[in-house]
Specification:
By secondary structure, the protein is α/β, with parallel strands linked by helices. It has one domain: TIM Barrel (Alpha-Beta Barrel). Helices cover 32% and strands 14% of the residues. It contains 3 helices and 3 strands, in the order E-H-E-H-E-H. It has helices spanning 19-33, 53-68, 98-108, and strands at residues 2-5, 39-46, 72-77. It has a 3-stranded parallel β-sheet, with helices on one face. Strand 1 (2-5), helix 1 (19-33) and strand 2 form a beta-alpha-beta unit. Helix 2 packs parallel to helix 3. The longest helix has 16 residues, at 53-68. It is globular, with a radius of gyration of 16 Å. The two termini are 27 Å apart.
Amino acid sequence: MDGYNFGTNPLQPAGWKAFYEVFEPTYSQLISLDPSKPIMIGETASTELGGSKPSWIADGFGKDMSVNFPKIKAVNWFNWNISEEGQPRWDWPVESSSASQASFANAISSPYYASNTFKELPPLTPIKPLP
């Protein structure tokens, strides 16, 4: 599943939505289809406009993930600062503010998440599958 918090960004002002509001409807539908299957968030991100992106990250990757969405086993943050038709850019990257970056680093440092076993690899090193 994918989900974005568009907030009040003028490119697509949809109103600020909490992580739970973004993902709960789709999560519930997927669980009803097959409660034994793991779920992946293929793309997610939040704007800085209309609320607190650091809090959105902390809430979503903190309590929400472990308590409300335990079947989510993989997440991909859409960390690309794209523009649409020459308009101002979306502020999707985690690094859109130092507070957002710190919130993300803090959230994923939780033992709930797998540790980074590949952090010492030189850039562009192929990663071998785990046995």
